[in-house]
Amino acid sequence: MRIPRRATAAVVTLAVAGACWAGYAAAADDPSYRTAVASIGDVEETVALAGTVEPAGRADLAFATSGTVARLAVRAGQKVRAGAVLGTLGSDTLRKEVQHARAAVAAARAQLEADIDAQTSAVTDPTDGGSSPQAPTAPQAPAGPSDQPSQPPSQQPTQPPSEQPSQQPSEQPSEDPVDPEQLAELAAQQQAVLTAQSAVSASLAVAATALAAQQAACVDVSSQACADALVAVQAAQQQVSTDQQALQTALEALGATLAAALGDASADPASASTPASGSAIVLVAEVGPTVTAATLARDQASIDQAEADLVAAEQELAMATVTAPFAGRVVAVDAEVGDSVAAGTDVFVLVSQGTTTVQVAASSTEVGELEPGQGATATPAGADEPLTGEVTQVSSIPDDEGSYPVTITLDRKHLDLPTGLTATVAVVTGTATDVVTVPVSAVSDGTVTLLDDGAATRTPVTTGIVGRTEVEITDGVAAGDEVALADLTRPLPTGDGPQGDFPGGPGGPPVVIQRDVPKPQ
Question: If one looks up domain 98-126+180-317 in CATH, what number appears?
Fold first, then answer.
């Protein structure tokens, strides 16, 4: 439940900060942490964009892909609401592709879970080979009338009870107790590999997009656009290199743990090789009897690719539908059901008076998070308060610069804002209410540091919605748990170094967030 800002918030904040500084000064000689307490709250995840204000008096609308008109939902002269469907193309094939893509994502996730379980079992029980299991497959449909009839079970001769071999209970080897800290370290290293692999997959996708944009911009190699595109490509490639190194480090850490636990050289990623194809699977382990660290990286890369394919399939399906970017009146419909239309050919004309939109350009990464109907706020340059609105149109076709046009329609009418005025936009892409939250700074590489009676324990967590300052924790932390934000034994920032290390201000005292003092929203 959100707490509104009160007039006394500043007094409470100052009191808390003063108390925290006193506590810090008193314990400055002892190892201590700047902490926060996990609490129940709301989290809102947003995508920050920038655009320009445009009056929306008329919109000529077209399908983003070619096909046959299957349905016209409006006629000329009809009034429509923002986001209303105006027409669709035949989409049976596209829907099947979406279903197949979803199945591929589910199968890839199942394989990863199976491999993690096998790897963990191999460490906790070295007598288990820890071989990579096959992910469960979808159940087969029962045989229909045209299928071959099922054969009756073969009749095996049964032995009399006196002739049946006696069943001797097998001796179970004594099991050493599992070390919880060892399991926590293993889980943290596994998560670090998965996080690093996803970062590599994302940076490779960004690099590919930057390279495509550079090739388009450098038709004129002497242009400034070409020079800017080359800089973007170099930055993207540097990020790929950085992420690959982080993945290598994570693989080596997990591989060392597996090798120490199993005594198996195949668990060490040293034998992994880097393919020359630029695949998202950066390191590929040799096939062996054990689920290696690189196997988990390959599984995560498969998930990343399957999810990217699903986004592409859903975008293709969305391209078969035209929706109204704002409320207005349809004044023309230039097609009939059954007509073949080409991508980009105007079919509908929509007009409205007094409507204002903000046109923004989203990257290939950002557009995957956007869809019509999402809430948004826009703050025009010079405005004191943001204006509320809604995402009403997301293009599936990039423009000449490789960006995807997105339309934000503002709620208020007749704003009389100058055309072309710049505006910052925040689109709400996810919300979570009444969930366990911790500050974003408490989470690092898929783990948090829990404090219990002064003892610090690294604990893997599963995160959900990530807000600007808070992150949802779906597993690993409970409300009331104390988490570390920073080690106070580290030197305080000086005027010569980066500022703002503590929320209390440059060089100021660390702030301990107390559970019984809600932060002002």
Answer: 1.10.287
